[in-house]
Write a structure and sequence with these properties.
The protein has 343 residues and is mostly beta strands. It has 2 helices and 28 strands. A 4-stranded antiparallel β-sheet has the order 2-1-28-27, with no helix packed on it. A 4-stranded antiparallel β-sheet has the order 3-4-5-6, with no helix packed on it. The longest helix has 15 residues. The radius of gyration is 20 Å and the shape is globular. It starts with a helix and ends with a strand. The N terminus is likely disordered.
């Protein structure tokens, strides 16, 4: 099952060239205005509703940056200018509620008890769930060049910077520099093991981030994500430059390619556009998801679903201006946001 969850991204590219959007509504033909920004499905991707109404009218599809939105069990959150827009899973018209967001903060990230707000230069706040109060909690953290914020299942908070990872276990009262390896990407957690990218290499910790080791591998790594039972990574051969999708089911110790025999340009481009290699982007919902017994995946042509573990694919929602959708799940609700860079 784990194989299919990831392998289907590779398999469907073979079939996608022959798939045409027959009776599906084309978002490109919709009327002008606040549209084609956010789509929502409550039936496993079979039908989609444009819920963009209520967002700023001058907002373009590429106006939402990759580190300014996420979904969790409370719904979808978007930061737009000085506003934080929230849509609950059961929201109907109006779809969005808005509250004032601290102007100096450009990024948001989910936390166990609320939302982190931060920017590149180190300003850091947190909003507690159920309140409208934003308060500084990391006043003792003075390190600039913040790239990402991540909270583990156990409550430890990591801040990734250009100088590695800093960690706190007491809500920011004290900080420890736990990895001094240069520019780092976001973290991924699975069964107590942490993986991250650091200077294009995968690093691994089995003691809650106290110590990190570089995984012995000659490949460059651009991203790591958790999957059921392990991790997945986008890598590139240092010799050939060939991009590859690989998985690990032994807590990141060893890795196996799952795209052998399918290394052509179409497959490589599809993989590349469906994953984000920008280290500043917070880890958020992957665009490879499973809903019930179906797999749903993004592709430059749109959103596809497979009900037979990747053997055949059906186009559910055509792409918007050749952008790749980002997919998020909140309970049984799927959200899709088009982006030029994929997720």
């Amino acid at each position: 099952m784990n194989f299919y969850i990831l392998a289907f991204l590779l398999l469907f590219t073979v079939f996608s060239s022959s798939l045409l959007p027959d009776s599906h509504p084309d978002p490109k033909t919709e009327k002008a205005g606040t549209a084609k920004i956010v789509f929502k499905s409550t039936d496993g991707g079979q039908t989609w509703q444009d819920i963009s109404k209520g967002l700023p009218e001058n907002l373009r599809e590429d106006g939402i940056q990759g580190n300014s939105f996420f979904a969790n069990d409370k719904g979808l959150f978007l930061r737009v200018g000085n506003g934080l827009y929230h849509s609950t899973p059961n929201a109907t018209t109006p779809f969005w509620t808005k509250e004032i967001f601290p102007d100096e903060h450009s990024s948001i990230a989910p936390g166990k008890s609320g939302i982190f707000a931060y920017n590149y230069w180190g300003v850091n706040l947190k909003k507690t769930n159920g309140t409208s109060v934003w308060s500084p909690i990391f006043e003792n953290f003075q390190e600039p060049r913040i790239r990402t914020v991540f909270e583990t299942a156990g409550g430890a908070i990591f801040i990734g910077t250009d100088r590695g990872f800093f960690k706190t276990t007491n809500s920011g009262n004290t900080w420890k520099h736990v990895h001094d390896g240069g520019l780092v990407g976001h973290l991924a957690e699975s069964d107590g093991v942490l993986l991250a990218t650091s200077m294009r290499r995968i690093i691994r910790s089995t003691d809650n981030g106290e110590n990190w080791a570089v995984i012995s591998d000659s490949s460059m790594a651009f991203d790591v994500k958790p999957i059921k039972g392990g991790f997945a990574a986008i890598t590139s051969s240092s010799e050939s430059g060939t991009r590859s999708l690989r998985t690990s089911y032994d807590a990141g110790k060893t890795w196996q390619p799952i795209d052998a025999g399918l290394q052509d340009k179409v497959v490589s481009d599809s993989i590349w556009r469906t994953w984000d290699d920008r280290p500043r982007v917070q880890a958020f919902g992957t665009s490879i998801i499973q809903v019930g017994e179906n797999f749903i995946c993004t592709h430059p042509h749109g959103i596809f679903r497979s009900s037979d573990k990747g053997k055949t694919w059906k186009l559910l929602l055509p792409s918007v201006e050749d952008k790749v959708f980002n997919l998020f799940v909140s309970g049984n609700v799927i959200y899709a946001i088009p982006s030029k860079g994929g997720c």
